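Researcher: I'd like a candidate sequence for this fold, 239 residues long. If you have to choose between options at a position, lean toward the conservative one.
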């Protein structure tokens, strides 16, 4: 039997030089596999189990798209907590580098508990990790997951389903709005258990005349068939 894979070990094994380059040049990066197929199946199965969630959102009721999602309640599933804090620690230095490049306070603390304490003190008390479900015809409109004044500038989406097998279509899409220029779109293909790391709101871009900011939004294109589940990992809590 294999020993269980701890997030810390897996996180160290990711290709960070490429991830950091992709984040710097495109504002997004794929991670390679984070969750095993079994972990993906267990998380997706939670959708229909009672007791894991604090609220459910039907997207068409709010004009957010079509499909639905549920926010996990505290205590979060241990897999989610472990990954959320381990990824936070790895990403906090990057978040600080982005903040200083954009002339913002670069004071994200090194560990997630300290950052969450800051969110809670600012009345952002509710956990933001979520489980999303899309069926044929469903989609997620371009949006930002802001949830309050405090925002950690990077977030992840993990694909739990098997593309081509469980569903077709349903591609993760990012747009980048550039000052006084036309917007740019990026489609991100993910494998089952893989995540995309991307900018929540703004990110710095090094231009010839200094650094400027671009604004990112993300969404999901229409599912052509099947069912697709994802987990969203957002590091700030919600008001
Ligand atoms: O389902 C997706 O790929 C995107 C989900 C999303 O909006 C998020 O994780 O914040
Ligand atoms: Fe989102």
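Model: Candidate sequence:
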């Amino acid at each position: 039997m294999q020993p269980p894979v701890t997030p810390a070990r897996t996180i160290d094994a990711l290709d960070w030089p490429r991830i950091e380059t992709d984040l710097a040049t495109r504002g997004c990066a794929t991670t390679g596999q984070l969750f095993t197929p079994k972990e993906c199946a267990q998380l997706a199965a939670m959708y229909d189990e009672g007791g894991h969630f604090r609220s459910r959102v039907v997207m068409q009721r709010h004009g957010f798209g079509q499909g639905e999602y549920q926010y996990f309640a505290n205590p979060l599933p241990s897999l989610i907590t472990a990954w959320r804090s381990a990824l936070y620690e790895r990403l906090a230095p990057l978040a600080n580098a982005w903040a200083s490049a954009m002339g913002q306070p670069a004071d994200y603390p090194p560990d997630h508990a300290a950052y969450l304490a800051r969110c809670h003190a600012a009345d952002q008390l509710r956990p933001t990790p979520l489980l999303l479900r899309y069926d044929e015809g469903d989609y997620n409109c371009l949006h930002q997951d802001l949830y309050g004044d405090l925002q950690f500038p990077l977030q992840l989406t993990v694909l739990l389903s098997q593309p081509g097998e469980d569903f077709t279509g349903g591609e993760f899409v990012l747009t980048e709005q550039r000052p006084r220029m036309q917007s740019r779109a990026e489609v991100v293909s993910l494998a089952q258990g893989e995540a995309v790391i991307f900018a929540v709101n703004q990110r710095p871009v090094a231009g010839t005349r200094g650094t400027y900011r671009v604004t990112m939004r993300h969404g999901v294109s229409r599912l052509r068939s099947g069912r697709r589940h994802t987990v969203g990992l957002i590091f700030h809590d919600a008001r």
